[in-house]
Design goal:
Blueprint: H1 2-95, E1 100-105, E2 119-125, E3 130-135, E4 140-145, E5 153-158, E6 171-177, E7 182-187, E8 192-197, E9 203-207, E10 209-210, E11 216-217, E12 223-226, E13 231-236, E14 241-246, E15 252-257, E16 272-276, E17 281-286, E18 291-296, E19 302-306, E20 319-324, E21 330-334, E22 339-343, E23 349-354, E24 361-365, E25 370-375, E26 378-382, H2 404-419, H3 425-428, H4 431-438
């Protein structure tokens, strides 16, 4: 019996021991499982946190990029606004210049009547009181009346885009041949010269095509009429030469240049030409040589040049336009220096006129003393004697070209003088002096 109890106690002890062991194992297993779950949860949390951090980094990068783009856009807007402000300030300065008598067109290009897109050619018709403008990128010529006191009024236009007779591709040079009642227009990209009726503004004929032969041209630009020798001179720009035609039948006469160079009598993309009839001279804007050359209109021989490149008075940076004022003064459109420059007939610098924008062409009206130039899709007219002294002087043969206000003033003074005492100061003032006085009003 005792042995049985002892044996039973051992069994119970062993069972309890095993039960404790099993419980311990279960506890250990439960701990391991819970630990694994904890580790798994921690790993999930860590991965989630890493993902959150990655999203935060991506969001930070995105915000930084947005900020950079906004900063660049803001900077771009500021720069553009600054450029617009500078541009407007420059144009406004020109608009406020009291020497400017009037301006035609707007700062923005347009194709309506009276608006321009790159006006590159100007000529005054002294006989009819007209100003003709080669409206290049609009492929047409516009005509304005300059007889009125309040400004220039639009009269007509002619030409359209194309390569057929009577059509243009970038008309530039323009000249008036009164002896043959015609307008001569350099049709640049069609490599030819067109003749139009001056009185009827209708197409007459055209000559030339692309090449380097006698009646061939390569992007010609300027044109002038040598009345004394009955010749038409064309600036054949990309052939680096001057071409002389007969003004009677437009037949070829001779050429000067033809080889690109910088020596006297050679040219590098010349752009414009003017004739000094009184001194029998040809004045050429030799653009890419940054100089002006003066040749004899009798035999084409080289006379002299003024050719220092720079921005100081008397220097050039791509001179593109030229005309002759009274007293043989030479006016040059100094394109990249944004100014007009005037010189004596011997090439000595006189004065400069700040244009605010790059001038493209310049012309002189000897009957009214006006200087016209083009810049920024507009034509500006400098009043008589407002920049250069004595651009207008009284001459009986030009009296009929005076503005009506001056005519009326002189007529009134003449009538008053006819009824006052002969010994009065009024009666002693000659008409010439009255005309000179009222020309400044």
């Amino acid at each position: 019996m005792r042995e049985w109890l002892v044996e039973g106690g051992r069994c119970c002890s062993l069972f309890l021991h095993r039960l404790v062991l099993v419980a311990s194992c279960c506890s250990l297993l439960a701990w391991v499982v819970s630990r694994s779950c904890l580790v798994s949860r921690v790993s999930c949390l860590v991965r989630e946190r890493e993902r959150e951090r990655e999203r935060e980094r991506e969001l930070h990068i995105f915000i930084s990029l947005v900020g950079a783009v906004w900063s660049l856009e803001h900077l771009f807007v500021v720069v553009c606004e600054r450029e617009i402000e500078v541009e407007e300030m420059e144009d406004d300065a020109l608009d406020r210049d009291a020497r400017i008598k009037l301006s035609i067109g707007t700062k923005q290009y347009g194709n309506a009547d009276g608006l321009f897109n790159d006006p590159l050619g100007l000529v005054f018709d002294h006989h009819r009181g007209l100003l003709l403008v080669a409206d290049c990128s609009n492929d047409r010529v516009q005509v304005f009346s300059c007889d009125g006191d309040d400004g220039f009024s639009f009269v007509s236009k002619f030409g359209e885009h194309g390569d057929q007779p009577g059509q243009f591709q970038y008309p530039i040079g323009i000249a008036i041949d009164h002896d043959h009642d015609r307008i001569l227009i350099v049709d640049c990209f069609n490599h030819r010269v067109q003749a139009w009726s001056l009185s009827e503004q209708s197409f007459l004929s055209c000559i030339g095509h692309q090449g380097s032969g006698d009646l061939e041209f390569f992007n010609p630009r300027g044109i002038a009429i040598d009345k004394h020798h009955r010749r038409i001179i064309i600036v054949d720009t990309d052939n680096h030469r001057l071409v002389f035609l007969s003004s009677i039948d437009l037949s070829f006469l001779l050429e000067i240049g033809g080889v690109q160079g910088s020596r006297p009598g050679e040219f590098n993309c010349p752009s414009e030409i003017a004739i000094d009839d009184d001194r029998h001279r040809i004045i050429i804007a030799d653009s890419d040589n940054h100089r002006v050359q003066v040749l004899s209109s009798i035999d084409g021989s080289f006379l002299f040049e003024f050719d220092s490149r720079g921005d100081q008075p008397g220097q050039f940076n791509y001179p593109i336009g030229v005309c002759i004022a009274n007293q043989g003064r030479i006016i040059v459109a100094d394109h990249n220096n944004r100014r007009l420059q005037s010189f004596t007939h011997e090439g000595h610098h006189i004065s400069s006129f700040d244009c605010g924008k790059e001038p493209l062409a310049v012309a002189f009206d000897e009957h009214r003393g006006l200087i016209a130039f083009t810049a920024d899709h507009r034509v500006h007219v400098i009043g008589a004697n407002q920049w250069l002294a004595d651009t207008f002087t009284w001459r009986p043969d030009l009296h009929r070209y005076a503005p009506s206000s001056i005519k009326q003033a002189i007529l009134t003074m003449t009538m008053i003088r006819s009824v006052v005492d002969e010994c009065s100061a009024m009666s002693m003032i000659p008409n010439e002096l009255l005309f000179e006085i009222f020309s400044f009003l």
